[in-house]
Amino acid sequence: MSEEIKVKTMEEFMAQGTQPEILFWVGSAGSYDDRAKKISRAFVKILNRAGVEFAVLGPEESCTGDVAKRAGNEFLFQMQAMMNIEVLNGYEIKRIVTCDPHSFNTLKNEYPGLGGHYDVVHHTQYIKELIDNGRLSIEGKVYKEKRITFHDPCYLGRANSVFDAPRDVLKKTNADIVEMKRHKKTALCCGAGGAQMFKEPEKGDMDINVLRTKDALETNPNIIATGCPYCNTMMTDGIKAHEKEDSVTVLDVAELIANSI
Amino acid sequence: MEYLPNILFTIALIVGIGFFARNVRKLSRNIKLGKNVDVSNDRPQRWKNMAKIALGQTKMVVRPIAGLMHIIVYVGFVIINLEVLEIILDGILGTHRVFAPLGALYDFLIGSFEVLAFMVIIAVVIFWVRRNIIKLKRFIKPEMEGWPKKDGNMILYIELVLMFLFLTMNATDFQLQQMDVAHYTKAGAFPISQFIAPLFENMSASNLILVERTAWWLHILGILAFLNYLYYSKHLHILLAFPNTYYGKLKPQGQFNNVEAVTNEVKLMMDPSADPFAAPVEDAPDPEKFGASDVMDLNWVQLLNAYTCTECGRCTSECPANQTGKKLSPRKIMMDTRDRLEDVGKNIDANKGTFVPDGKQLLGDYISHEELWACTTCNACVEACPVSIDPLSIIMEMRRFLVMEQSAAPTELNNMMSNIENNGAPWPYNQMDRLNWVNE
C-alpha cells in the first residue's frame, strides 16, 4: 500500500494545544515488524478515510511489557508499564485503540493496577464503531464470494471475550464468513503467545501454528483473517508449511477493510 | 442384646465421621500452607458462579456425553442422600423405613431412587468402558499411569457395588413385605428391584432377612468407607468443587495479577529522591521471594485448586502445547502440586507440626522447566476446566521464580528482554525509528 497516509504525533497535538479523539497505540510489532507495519498503515488508511483525529506516540511509545510479563519478568513489565503510564497520563490520554490484542489486554487490564486508567479498544471494535456511526462506509465488492475464516486471537477472544466485533466487521465485506471447528472460546492458540514468539518451541511432534493452520484450511478458505500481528505471522508460516501460499492468503481485518473502502 | 445393632451402628457412624473430620482438618491445614489472597470481593458474583458451575454443572455439558452421564451420577448422589438419612435414622433408632408414613410421597421417592440407581449403574458402566475399552486419549496420558488410573476405576467399582447393594436391599425387602414379616412394613415402590426380586422368591423369611440386613449394613458401611476414601482420591472434587468455583477467578482471563512486592521495588527504583546507597533498615523483614518454587509460595486458592482437580484431563486435551506433543500437561501441573502438597503435609505430620526441609521442591523435582516454557498462556486449560481451576496461574508463578530469582529463562527470551530494556522493543531496533513505518 503505497498510498499516502497522514499520521500526527501526540507531541504535535500538544504543540497545537488540541487533543485527538483517540490515541493509536502502534505497538512494537506494528512499528518494526515488516508484515505488521502493513497492518498499521492499513488501519491508518481507515482512520484517515473516516476523518478520525488520532495521534500516535511515535518515539515516545515503548514496549507495553506484556511479553516480559508472560515470560515471568514482572520487574521489566512494571518498569515499562510505569514509564508508559507516565507518558500517557502526561498527555491526559483517555481513549486508546490498538491493533495488537496483547497490548490491548495489558493496557486495559493490567495498567489500571499501576495507575493507568484508559478506555482501551481493539481496532476491530473501533472499526465497527466507525461503521455503526456512519463515519465509514464499506464498498462490499472486492471480497464478494470469497471465503474468509477468522482466527480468534487468544488475548482478544478467550482472554477478553471480544468475539463479535471482528466478525461483524468482516461481514461488511460481503464475503462468506466460515467458522473453523474450534472458534471463539475454544479457538486454538496460534502458538506465539506467552513469549513463544521470541523463542524456539519445545520439543514435540508438530508446531502449534501448523496445527492451527490445518484447522483454518479445513474450512477451505481463500483468506484467513487475523486480528493480531503475531497470529498473522504464525498463520502465514503455517500456510507455507502446508504449501498453500498460492491459494490462501493471510490478512488482518484492518487490511480487508482498508481494501474495501 | 436387643440394642446391640443400634450400638454397633452408632459406633460405626461415629468412627466413620470422626475419621472423615480428621481428614478434613488435615486438608484444611495443608491448604492454609498457601499464602493469603484476598477473595472477599464481589460475593454475589461468586455465589452465582458456584450455583451455575458447581450446582448447575454448566461446564460439564460442554462435552455432551460425559456431561449427561456425569449429571446422572451427580443427581443420583445428591438425591440418594435422602435415603442415606433414612438409613442413618433407622440404624440409630432401630426402626425400619422410618419415613414410610409419608405414604404416596415415600413410594414416589423410593421409586425414583431406584430409577436413579439404575441410571447411575448404566452411566458408571459407560464411564468404565470409556476409560478401559475405548481408552479415550485424555485418560491414557503419562501422568495417568499407576495410582491415578487405579483410583479412577476404583471409584467406579465402589459406586457400582453401592448401587447393587441398594437394589438388593430393596428387592429382599420387597419379598419380606409380600410375606407380611413383622418389622417389614409395606412401603415403597420398586420399579427396578422388582426385577431382581424373583431371585429371592423361594427363600425362607430368615434367609431373606439375612440377605436384606447384610445388604443394608454393607451399603451404609460402604458409604462411610467411601467418605473416608475421598481424601486419598481425586473424588474429593464432589466436595471441593463448590468452594473452588466460589473462589474461582472473576477477572478477565487475560488479566494476570501485578505482583505487589515488585511494584514496591520498582517504585523505589524509579523514585529520584530515593538514596540507592542507603543502608538497609535494621529489622527490615526478609525481602519477599518473587514467584513460586514450592507449594508454600503459591496462594491457598491455588492449593485448593490442586485438591479439587479430578484429573478429567479436559484442560490437557485442549492445551495447544500438549496437542502438538510437548511435555506440558496442565492436568499434570495440578496433580504435581497436589502430590507435593501431600508430601509436605506428611512431612509436617512426621515432624510434630513443623516442616523440615526435605531437599525437594515443586519446581524441578515435580515440574520441569521444559513443561513451564512450553506454555503459550492461551487460557485454553482455564476455559476447559469444569470446576474453575486455573493451572496457568501456577505456571506463571513458577516462570516468575525462574526469571526473577534464578535468571533461568531460555537464552532467546533473555535476548528479547534485554532488547526491551535497552530499546523499548523486543527487537534490537532504535526507539527513535518507531515512526518509520509511516513513510514506508
Automatic annotation (TrEMBL), chain A:
Keywords: 4Fe-4S, Iron, Iron-sulfur, Metal-binding, Oxidoreductase. One of its GO terms (molecular function) is 4 iron, 4 sulfur cluster binding. Residues 32-107, 148-235 form the Cysteine-rich domain. It holds the Pfam family CCG. The keyword Magnesium does not apply. InterPro entries: Cys_rich_dom, HdrC_iron-sulfur_subunit. GO terms for cellular component: plasma membrane. It comes from the Bacteria. This is CoB--CoM heterodisulfide reductase. It comes from Flagellimonas eckloniae.
UniProtKB/TrEMBL annotation, chain B:
It comes from the Bacteria. Keywords: 4Fe-4S, Iron, Iron-sulfur, Membrane, Metal-binding, Oxidoreductase, Transmembrane, Transmembrane helix. InterPro entries: 4Fe4S_Fe-S-bd (IPR017896), 4Fe4S_Fe_S_CS (IPR017900), HdrC_iron-sulfur_subunit (IPR051460), Helical_ferredxn (IPR009051), NarG-like_sf (IPR036197). GO terms for molecular function: 4 iron, 4 sulfur cluster binding; metal ion binding; oxidoreductase activity. Residues 300-331, 364-397 form the 4Fe-4S ferredoxin-type domain. It holds the Pfam family Fer4_9. The chain crosses the membrane at residues 6-24, 65-88, 108-129, 154-172, 214-232. This is Fe-S oxidoreductase.
